[in-house]
């Protein structure tokens, strides 16, 4: 699948040097070929021109078209009617409509048009028209590539029965996880995607320090493999074996890829096995695995014939030998720590290479449990060792799979942004040559595309259960967020001094998104919705999007059981308030995930959120069910 993906990607970029555009216009403005000599992207546009809508529709049947530019007034039907028919046949192909000065752009967009361009501007600056078409096609290509990449990555990971995941190098972002997480941890994939540190809450307290230390080692560039216990939401405890591998770029750990699997059944069998063979009368020589019993000093006190057979030593040789002498020098510290863990926590699990009498090494996995006297004092450790040589091939396969996942993520991160970088470069050249509000709008559109790519590769950062809850002053959090959001001329009114119990980082993200929502959307009069492919429908002029609202007042105040964020902007229509927290809802040209993230943060803390009209007629978000911190 990986080779198939890379092959298709190569084909895509080989074809990206030229674009085939259908021009539907009885007064065509562009020649059959338009060159871009200084472009870092496609070299040219190849145009096929027809003066009638019906003939254009016929051409679409058997011709691969990258984009369409159509006049608003055609001899046989309007350009908007033509766009509607095109959209019924192809929901993605970009359609640029040449409008007359008196036309209303938003009406055209609602009819399935991707973008509009005034004819009088195009007549004077045909180069701008050509560039606009090129940018639309590049946006379309990057969106399709993002969609294919997401699907292929999911298909690749879902073929594995193991839990596969990709974290950022510092463990603060989960970049990918397959559905096996739900089976193993009993929590939803969405909860981990939105709160990357959620998995730590499931780890048994006795194992948390060891897991954290292992995570730090991976962030420092070391591969690790370890076993630990987790507790599912239903109270069931399970054992997990996880392996993590760092992906290093430019000397820095950029990502961490790994796999986890459920070993609960194996642990149960081992415990029963140990309990059985620990009986004084147990026939330990019949046990196929290595059996060992250590005294209170951590030295061999009893063993079975399998240990002698595996090492090549006789019982007489084993009697006086130090335990660590049976292991490769590089693993002796691991063995010592493993035995110390058994004495301190009651159980242990570690891997080490057994050193045989002839000097060869064999990889073994050891588990053990503490033996205690009636008064609770430790008497020693008993356990078994299992030859894991046969597992090496499976581990190598997993390592190769992890490597492919890492390479895949690297390719995605690099190549998804290539078309966007090309478009941004061309925009810089255009802005040097021409000062236009249209170019500013294109720049904002580029920002939106970048956000869409980021939302594909690194998901939101919240979850189902509140983490690290502590007293947090609302006034302090709001003031911190106010400094990090571009607020323009917006005025902040703080009408609260309350302290709530919450996760500080999640609460900052909640206020940051609500402030940004009010500032960016407070004066935006029309609603924009996005479908799954990122296409826009019913949008405002790009010149209005992502611009800080002027003369807007935002108020943060208290409720009896929570707080609210309100503004005096245009508000949210009553018919749309039930859908504002869905992914893809936006009142400007952003990706539309801001309020969805807010909703997930609220759920994380067990709160509730509603949206209504503020006293000034704007939007008011009320968060209730909040626990206040009392003095």
TrEMBL record:
Alphabetical UniProt keywords: Kinase, Phosphoprotein, Transferase
Keyword field contains Amino-acid biosynthesis: no
Domain (PAC) ranges: 224-275, 348-400
Domain Histidine kinase: 411-624
Species: Haloarcula marismortui (strain ATCC 43049 / DSM 3752 / JCM 8966 / VKM B-1809) (Halobacterium marismortui)
Cited Pfam families: HATPase_c, HisKA, PAS_3, PAS_4
Residue ranges of domain Response regulatory in the record: 20-134
Database matches in SMART domains: HATPase_c, HisKA, PAC, PAS
Any GO MF annotation of the entry: phosphorelay sensor kinase activity
Classification via InterPro entries: CheY-like_superfamily, HATPase_C_sf, HATPase_dom, His_kinase_dom, HisK_dim/P_dom, HisK_dim/P_sf, PAC, PAS
Segments forming domain PAS: 149-222, 284-346
Biased composition (Polar residues): 537-547
Biased composition (Basic and acidic residues): 526-535
Class of enzymatic activity (EC top level): transferase
EC number(s) on file: 2.7.13.3
Name of the gene this protein is made from: htlD
Record region (Disordered): 517-547
Entries under CDD domains matching the protein: HATPase (cd00075), HisKA (cd00082), PAS (cd00130), REC (cd00156)
Catalytic activity: ATP + protein L-histidine = ADP + protein N-phospho-L-histidine
Name listed for the protein in its UniProt record: histidine kinase
């Amino acid at each position: 699948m990986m080779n198939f993906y890379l092959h298709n990607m190569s084909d895509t970029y080989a074809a990206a040097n030229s674009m085939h555009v259908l021009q539907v216009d009885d007064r065509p403005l562009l020649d059959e070929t338009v060159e871009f000599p200084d472009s870092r992207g496609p070299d040219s546009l190849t145009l096929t021109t027809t003066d009638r809508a019906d003939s254009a529709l016929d051409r679409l049947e058997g011709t691969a078209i990258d984009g369409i530019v159509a006049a608003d007034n055609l001899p046989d039907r309007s350009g908007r009617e033509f766009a509607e028919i095109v959209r019924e046949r192809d929901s993605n192909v970009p359609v640029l409509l040449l409008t007359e000065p008196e036309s209303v752009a938003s009406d055209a967009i609602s009819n399935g048009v991707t973008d509009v361009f005034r004819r009088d501007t195009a007549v004077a600056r045909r180069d701008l028209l050509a560039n606009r078409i090129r940018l639309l096609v590049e946006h379309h290509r990057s969106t399709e590539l993002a969609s294919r990449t997401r699907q292929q990555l999911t298909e690749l990971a879902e073929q594995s029965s193991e839990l596969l995941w990709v974290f950022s190098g510092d463990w603060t972002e989960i970049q990918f996880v397959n559905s096996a997480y739900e089976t193993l941890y009993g929590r939803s994939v969405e909860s981990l995607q939105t709160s990357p540190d959620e998995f730590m809450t499931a780890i048994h307290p006795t194992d948390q320090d060891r897991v954290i230390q292992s995570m730090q080692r991976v962030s420092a560039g070391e591969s690790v493999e370890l076993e630990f216990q987790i507790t599912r939401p239903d109270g069931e405890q399970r054992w997990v074996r996880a392996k993590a591998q760092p992906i290093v770029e430019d000397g820095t750990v950029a990502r961490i890829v790994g796999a986890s699997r459920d070993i609960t059944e194996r642990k149960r069998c081992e415990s029963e096995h140990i309990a059985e063979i620990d009986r004084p009368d147990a026939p330990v020589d019949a046990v196929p695995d290595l059996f060992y019993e250590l005294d209170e000093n951590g030295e061999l006190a009893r063993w079975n014939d399998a240990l002698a057979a595996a090492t090549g030593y006789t019982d007489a040789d084993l009697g006086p030998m130090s335990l660590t002498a049976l292991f490769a020098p590089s693993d002796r510290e691991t063995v010592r720590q493993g035995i110390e863990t058994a004495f301190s926590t009651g159980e242990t699990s570690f891997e080490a290479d057994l050193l045989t009498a002839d000097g060869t090494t064999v990889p073994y996995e050891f588990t053990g449990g503490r033996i205690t006297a009636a008064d609770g004092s430790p008497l020693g450790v008993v356990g078994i060792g299992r030859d894991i040589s046969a597992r090496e091939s499976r581990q190598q396969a997993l390592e190769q799979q992890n490597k492919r996942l890492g390479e895949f993520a690297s390719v995605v991160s690099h190549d998804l942004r290539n078309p966007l970088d090309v478009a941004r470069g061309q925009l810089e050249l255009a802005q040097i040559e021409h000062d236009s509000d249209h170019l500013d709008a294109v720049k904002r559109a580029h920002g939106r595309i970048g956000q869409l790519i980021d939302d594909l590769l690194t998901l939101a950062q919240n979850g189902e259960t509140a983490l690290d809850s502590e007293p947090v002053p609302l006034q302090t959090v709001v003031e911190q967020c106010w400094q990090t959001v571009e607020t323009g001329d917006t005025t902040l009114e703080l009408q609260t001094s309350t302290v709530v119990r919450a996760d500080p980082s999640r609460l900052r993200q909640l206020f940051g998104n609500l402030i940004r929502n009010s500032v960016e959307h407070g004066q935006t009069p029309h609603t924009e919705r996005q479908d799954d492919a990122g296409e826009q429908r019913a949008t405002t002029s790009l010149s209005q999007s992502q611009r800080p609202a002027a003369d807007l007042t935002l108020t943060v105040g208290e409720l009896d059981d929570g707080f609210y964020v309100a503004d005096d902007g245009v508000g949210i229509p009553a018919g749309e308030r039930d859908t504002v927290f869905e992914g893809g809802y936006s009142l400007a040209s952003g990706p539309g995930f801001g309020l969805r993230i807010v909703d997930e943060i609220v759920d994380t803390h067990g709160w509730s959120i509603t949206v209504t009209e503020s006293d000034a007629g704007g939007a008011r978000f009320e968060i209730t069910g909040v626990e206040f911190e009392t003095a």
